[in-house]
Specification:
This protein is of the alpha+beta class and 339 residues long. It is globular and about 60 Å long.
C-alpha cells in the first residue's frame, strides 16, 4: 500500500511508509501521546515544546521539538536525526547522527546524508501510466523508489525504443525528486532521442529542464507533450503549470479550467489556486487549494498554496501549519522549507 500522513494531538506531523504499523496512546496523566512504530517507517516533524515519547520494539526515544526518521525492521531498529534534539535509551543525538539498535547492541553513525532514508516519502512528478512500466509505477506510488528504479533500469536496457524511453522518463522523475538534476537531464534527453513521439518522454524532459531553471525550454517540451497526447489532461496541465511559472496566469487558468471535473481534477484545481494567488485573489485561491487537498491529501504543493493563501488573509498560524504539512509530505524539497 501507499503512505499515510497523520496530525497528532501535540501538533506533531507523522508520515508513515507503506505497510507500516503504528500505535498511538494517550495516557490519562500525560500531556502528550506515546507513539510506537511496530513495523515499517515513520517520518516525524514536531514543533511542539512538550516532550513526548516515540519507540520501536528495540529502542525508546524522548523527543523535544525535532525532525527525525524512525525505522522498525526485523533485524534492527534505527533513529535518524535531521533537526532538533532526541535522547535514545539515555544517549543524546545531535543532527546528522543515527542510532541503530538490535538485540546484539547499538551502533552510532555520524555524517548522515541530508534526509537519508526518506526516498519513500518524497513527492514524485506525475507521468502517464504505461503498460510497459505499470509495475514500476505502482512501486513508486507505494513509496518503494528503490524497487521502481531497479525495474526502470532493467527496462531501459531491454525492449524496443518506446519501452526504453518510458523507462528513462520514469528514471527522470525519480532522479528529480531525489535531487540528482544531472541524471535527470541525461535520462530525459535519452528518452526524447529514443522515442520523440511519446508524450511521457517530453513530459519528463520538461521536468528536467525546469529543475535546471530553463523555463522556456521546459515550456516547449510540455507543449510538445500536450500536442502528442490528444485527450490526455496531464500534459496540458503540465503546460499550464509552466505558463504560471512564466507569469502567464491567464493562460494557465484557461488551460486548467476544463480539467476540474476530470481524472486530473486535483492538479487542475491546484493550478487554478496558484493562478488566483497571482491575480491577488486569496479567497478564491484558498477554495481551490482546499478542494485540491481534499482530492489528493498527499500533494505537498496544494498545502503550500493553501498556506500562502491563508497568510495573505492574515491567518498566520493556520498558514504556517499548512506549510509544515507540505514539508512533511515532501521532506526532500528545499523550496518548501524556504518558507
Amino acid at each position: 500500500g501507499g503512505s499515510a500522513a497523520l496530525e497528532l494531538a501535540n501538533d506533531t506531523l507523522l508520515r508513515l511508509g507503506g505497510l507500516s504499523a503504528v500505535s498511538i496512546r494517550r495516557h490519562p496523566n500525560a500531556a502528550t501521546p506515546t507513539v510506537r512504530i511496530e513495523r515499517g517507517r515513520g517520518h516525524f516533524l514536531s514543533r511542539t515544546r512538550q516532550r513526548f515519547d516515540a519507540s520501536t520494539p528495540y529502542l525508546n526515544a524522548a523527543i523535544d521539538g525535532t525532525e527525525f526518521l524512525l525505522v522498525a525492521a526485523p533485524a534492527a531498529d534505527e533513529l535518524v536525526l535531521f533537526e532538533g534534539r532526541v535522547t535514545v535509551d539515555g544517549q543524546q543525538l545531535v543532527p546528522g547522527q543515527s542510532l541503530r539498535v538490535s538485540p546484539g547492541g547499538s551502533e552510532l553513525r555520524l555524517a548522515v546524508r541530508s534526509r537519508e532514508g526518506l526516498e519513500w516519502a518524497l513527492h514524485y512528478p506525475p507521468l502517464a501510466t504505461t503498460a510497459a512500466l505499470r509495475e514500476a509505477q505502482a512501486r513508486l506510488a507505494a513509496g518503494d523508489a528503490r524497487a521502481a528504479a531497479q525495474l526502470a533500469e532493467t527496462a531501459a536496457g531491454s525492449g524496443g525504443p518506446t519501452e526504453r524511453a518510458q523507462a528513462r522518463a520514469l528514471q527522470t522523475v525519480i532522479a528529480i525528486a531525489q535531487g540528482d538534476t544531472a541524471a535527470a537531464d541525461r535520462f530525459s534527453a535519452e528518452a526524447v532521442t529514443l522515442a520523440g513521439d511519446q508524450p511521457n518522454a517530453w513530459l519528463a524532459r520538461s521536468y528536467a529542464q525546469q529543475a535546471l531553471f530553463d523555463l522556456p525550454a521546459a515550456r516547449r517540451s510540455a507543449a510538445r507533450a500536450a500536442e502528442l497526447a490528444k485527450g490526455d489532461e496531464l500534459p496540458t496541465l503540465r503546460l499550464a503549470e509552466l505558463e504560471l511559472a512564466s507569469g502567464n496566469y491567464r493562460a494557465a487558468r484557461r488551460l486548467a479550467q476544463p480539467a476540474v471535473r476530470g481524472p486530473q481534477a486535483a492538479l487542475a484545481l491546484r493550478t487554478l489556486g496558484f493562478a488566483d494567488l497571482a491575480a491577488d485573489d486569496a479567497a478564491s485561491a484558498q477554495a481551490s487549494f482546499e478542494q485540491a487537498a481534499a482530492l489528493d491529501p498527499l500533494d505537498p504543493l496544494s498545502r503550500l498554496g493553501l498556506g500562502l493563501a491563508l497568510i495573505r488573509q492574515n491567518r498566520l498560524a493556520a498558514g504556517r501549519r499548512q506549510m509544515e504539512i507540505a514539508v512533511s509530505l515532501d521532506p526532500g524539497q528545499s523550496l518548501l522549507r524556504s518558507y
